[in-house]
Design goal:
Blueprint (H helix, E strand, L loop, with lengths): L1 E5 L6 H17 L5 E6 L5 E2 L5 E2 L3 E2 L8 E4 L5 H4 L3 H11 L4 E5 L2 H7 L6 E3 L6 H6 L3 E3 L4 E4 L2 E4 L4 H14 L1 H11 L19 H5 L2
Parallel strand pairs: 1-2, 1-6, 2-5, 6-7, 7-11, 8-9
Antiparallel strand pairs: 3-4, 10-11
Helix pairs in contact: 1-6, 1-7, 6-7
């Protein structure tokens, strides 16, 4: 299995690194994908939103057919939705992928590639209204949303939950449990301040209060 991770300038680091860690542990220890590829338009280093620099493994042109593709979000998505090379890459890979996943505002790249029309999806709380305005997406305010072979998650850290849910679906709950335990991913229920009570907070967060 080949699992590709799309990268582009100004992507949000944790959107990528969280799922990369979960999928990597799955692959290395529990029989998951034997190949993880960081894919970019070229082999040039990619500077992320918070200053992390990434070295792509392969370019759009040289990338093999992937079994799974994950698309992160971040400020860079606002520019990349108008990048025909990136949009075409996502669209063409998706034709033969078993699943395509997006984190945060990566949802908008999936939409531009023609993958979300008539489907359910979610995104970062600050972009939910923008996703609704597209008109052809059923917006679900949950942390992880699946519609067929298209998966999406809310913002930033939610990519970890997305990856674990995906592993549970593909490899079984016992394998997902091993990855969760190995990575010690058991988020605290502690709430800092009261922003989780804000009118802008997504519905899934309000339900937990």
């Amino acid at each position: 299995m080949k699992f590709g991770f799309l990268v582009f300038p100004d992507l949000e680091e944790l959107d990528l690194i969280g799922p990369w860690e979960m999928v990597g542990m799955w692959g290395k220890l529990f029989g998951g994908p034997e190949s993880r590829l960081i894919v970019a338009q070229s082999h040039d280093p990619i500077l992320c939103a918070r200053g992390l620099s990434l070295n792509p493994h392969t370019s759009f042109e040289q990338c093999p057919q992937l079994d799974f593709l994950l698309v992160p979000g971040g400020e860079g998505t606002r520019k990349e939705v108008d990048n025909p090379l990136l949009v075409r890459f996502v669209s063409e890979q998706a034709k033969h992928c078993s699943a395509v996943l997006s984190v945060c505002t990566g949802t908008f790249l999936l939409h531009k590639a023609g993958l979300l029309s008539g489907k359910k999806a979610t995104t970062h709380w600050n972009s939910l209204a923008r996703l609704k305005e597209l008109g052809d997406v059923t917006v679900v305010e949950e942390r992880v949303v699946r519609d067929g072979n298209i998966w999406s998650s809310s913002g930033v850290s939610a990519g970890i939950d997305l990856a674990l849910a995906f592993i549970a679906e593909i490899a079984g709950e016992k394998t997902a449990a091993k990855v969760q335990f190995g990575s010690e991913y058991y988020p605290s229920e502690k709430r800092y301040g009261t922003l989780h009570e804000s009118p802008m907070a997504p519905a899934y967060l309000k339900k937990r209060v």
